[in-house]
Amino acid sequence: MEEEERQARGSDLSHLTYAGWSLAKALKARTVLRRTPVSRGAPPRWSPLGPFGISGGQTFGSGPGSQPVVSGRVSSLAVDPLDPAHLLVGAAGGGIWESRDGGANWQPRTDDQRTLVIGAVAFDPDDSSIAYAGTGEGNGFDNLGLGVLKSEDGGATCREMPDRQLDQTGFFDLLPLGGSRILAATTSGLWLSSDGGESWTRLFPARTWSFSRLPEGGEILAASEDGLRYSYDGESWGSVGLPLAPKSWTRMAVCHSPQNAAVAHVFAVSGGEEGDVHLWRRSPRDGRFQEILIPHIDAGSAGFNWVAAAAPGPRGSREALFLGSVPLFRGVRLESGAWRWSNVSDRNDGDSIHVDQHAVVFDLQTPGTLYVGNDGGVFRSRDTGQTWESLNRGLAIAETLFLAQDSRSADKLLAGTQDNGTLHYDGLPLWRLVAVGDGGPCAIQQETPYLYFHTFAHLTLERSDREGGRGTWEGIGQDRPERKSLFYPPIRVLGEVVVQAGETVQISSDAGDSFTEVFLLAGSGLVSAIEIVDRDRILVGTETGDLYRIDRNPTGWDPPIPLLQPRAGFISSILAADRDHLWVAYSDVPGPGQGQIFRSTNGGQDWEDLSIGDFELPVNVIRADPASPNILYAGTDFGVFRYEGGWEDLSEGLPHALVKDLVFYAPDHRLRAATASRGVWEIVLPA
Questions:
Q1: pTM for the complete prediction?
Q2: Residue 40 DSSP code
Q3: How far is CA 636 from CA 28, 415, 657, 670, in A?
Q4: Structural domains of the chain in order of their starting residue, each with its CATH number
Q5: Cβ(117)–Cβ(125) under 8 Å?
Q6: In 3-state terms, the chain is what percent helix, strand and coil (to 5)?
Q7: For residues 304 and 553, what is the distance between their CA atoms, to the nearest angstrom?
Q8: 645 vs 81: CA distance, rounded Å
Q9: Which of 5, 295, 372, 541 has its CA 20 to 30 A from that of 321?
Q10: Sheet with 670-675, edge to edge strand ranges
Q11: Torsion angle (degrees, nearest 10) of CA 201, 206, 209, 212
């Protein structure tokens, strides 16, 4: 279990964002390409394949109740103040989901919006038919935001607010004050709207993470990178002193005690991975914040997961405080003033929930009931964290980044997911977890014995001869802990040839029993894409845009031969129809006059720009049609595009999620797309 936990803690977000990426230009690309379709007749439509929940989900607990159904990253939660069965979920890259029956059933509500990245959701306290969402997630997809969404039917439908000041800004929190006034905590500062989100005014530029206000109104507290602030009207703000506070913070969360308006808590960390963690409590006796002792809390990913929430209860009852980072802690204040702390997410003798906590909210009408949103979805406790229920069935928000198709059956897929392991699809709505940790690139040998391969983060590689069943994996590859690689280094498999690469290329000619290490030229960068042309030729591309060919000789593999570079940049995908006909795709933002996809007809000696128009559109993967290698499919940060002499948008019916991988099931011409935070979708194409 120690190794599984080490892998699970390897989560990284570097693959999520692209500096300078223009969502507006990507939207323009889709509009233009839809005006000039290549295909005739009604286009086929995409349909969801799941996972509609992941069975045997990973936690840091053990024993009964430690493997609940999980889904994907939830950044925010809201409980209707008038109807506790009415819930809204903000999925990190999967849009807004609504439940009217306490989480038993879920419906996606924003698949038609221009972005599915949600950082915050909130109901209006005066009228819960009005709800707001901040697009762009401060924890990850911050530059994929398009401002604020507003609903006037409780979240069932949403419309985009017109103010463009918050485009490409990430949201952490929203606080509706009533009377059309709303506060927003974002990566670009603290903002106020006085007209129901139609327009916004920035009050402070400092990154702001968290708000707190008691339900009956009064003091508002805001946690920002430059300290704690207070206000009584949301417009005029003052600073609150904290003992021994630094000048800036890595992360901070704030909450009032619902039992006593004068009591408030501040949960903060300063410094880097080994930062100083603090918890302060303001006592009604003197109105000052005083530090209190807390258990050791892992602050290594505080920039990604950090939350504090005080449980409601009758006046005079014991205070209960929840602190979330990787695990979730509950503290109970005793009569002596001391605190009793317990880890309520990772248990050895009871229910456990997923790691990486992002949201804790309470049902104010039902004492003891709270909801938690984390990297594994939504969980509910009806007894203040003593026991847990998974509410993830039907919540199709898994961050599926990698796919592998078994050629023997449409109902056999392997998928790598961020922080939710490697999954196996066997035709059922719930996909099975078969390996814990961060699920990286995966592959399936397409001939006897049909070996399955999967990776964790970094240069790890495992193989299964029993279709990836849990407990059937064995570690393979050379032990090279000193070798650098991308967080998710690529792998490819063709017959007995298995390749994984970082700063060097590891090649096996016997399905992973042994490996040969091939060194690239100095300064080439880390390998970001691999293509096995045939059993005697391999192509690799790097994060800097370098391309190499590696050929087999009678005794092993030749040193790599540099090919002409199409352009500098991050090569995300290489495709070879044969040794002469090659394609290369880039997932960085192309500069002026630069392309995203290039084609060579002479083995990489020359390249032709084959890009999807003149747009800033990262391309994550390219695949060829198995029935016609001259027809291409490109998975991009804004849908799937098809090339047959020209590009057309093939995204009809596909949510506006980032498409990270594509695979074909050739017998019925079925294309599958792995998306970030909306699971896997499929489309059956005309023959």
A1: 0.94
A2: -
A3: 14, 18, 9, 18
A4: 72-390 (2.130.10.10), 400-684 (2.130.10.10)
A5: no
A6: 5, 40, 55
A7: 48
A8: 55
A9: 5
A10: 47-50, 680-684, 670-675, 659-665
A11: -60
